[in-house]
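# nightly structure sweep
# worker-07 picked up a monomer target from the shared queue
# config: single-sequence mode, recycle default, output format = structure tokens
# input follows
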Amino acid sequence: MGDLIGCPTVSSVLRRSNAGVTLPLIIDLGATGKRLTHTMQAESLRVLCRGIFEAAGAPKDIASAVAESLVMTNLFGHDSHGVLRVKQYVSMIKDGMIKPRARPRVKRRFGATAMATGGYGFGQIGARFTAELAIELARQHGISAVSLGQSTHIGRLGEYTGMIAAEGLIGICFTSGTMFRGWVTPYGGRERVFGTNPMSFAVPCEDSGTLLLDFATAGVAHGKIVLARAKGAPVPTGMMLDRRGRPTTDASILDDGAVLLPMGAHKGSGLAMMMEIIPTLLAGHRPITSAEFHFGNPTLMMALEPRAFDEGSDFRRQVGALTRRVKATAPAEGFDEVLLPGEPEARSYRDRAKNGIPLPDAVWEDLRGMAQDLGLGFGGEN
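# output follows
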């Protein structure tokens, strides 16, 4: 992974792992010699996760694709949506919430639009199907909008907008919902009303680069609170309220009535509300507050072909020129440089692809325990 003409490159290539690969484990030790962090190479982690999903009932191609998606997310530095989720997914399979063999299908087509259904299979499989369909329709019509219903957790939205942008199109993705009953309170409130309701935008840049933005409308994603709890770390100030509506940084009280705050005060609250409406209803779901709410990640993906609006468009070149101008901005006091959307992720990818993916003790123990429970082997510790 590398920056091309100022644009962080996003890969949508799916690599397949080979069965039978050993799983080397590298242990980082603190000054006291206490085991602090487990670092695994990406390929070993893919093989481990794929094996867990196969043992839990997923076909090999589905297990491989979901494992690839989660590990890729860790490589990009978004650990809250990476292999931390394996335990959750396996539990959902056991509870009948994820149907591991289900495959998405088109429910309805109308011109440049379509509705897809994931059949409550793995969300990543449904989301990739939806992105591919959005690309196909945009090629035909210049623009497309495809909703995805009956979807479980789809993971990192940037994976799918990145797929669209890699085809030279503009990618937009909105999603909502939750596996639970919401985490985010409206601005000025202290009750759970919204999901974290993220959105993502990706545009093609010069020389096959991609400029990508991906963020939750909550101040912090729910998964990042879960990750902080796993690490025993505090939540940043201004992101959470306790059950009485008082500010807190204690991640351990997440399941004790705590609520997440919207990003940007009233502006983020308004965005969260629109995300609760648009992808939710167009995918055939109902908002979290509805008596008809059903868990899932209803999603809307859109793709736009720049050439459909102007055949002589120099879209990619203009994006490249803008990113170079942004990078050339003099940094303010306390900053070393101005970063582009997606640039921290591209740097994380380069580092972790070379040096391995760090896992908190709690996440590693979950993975190892599941592997043992499912009768899978794993490499020895060093």
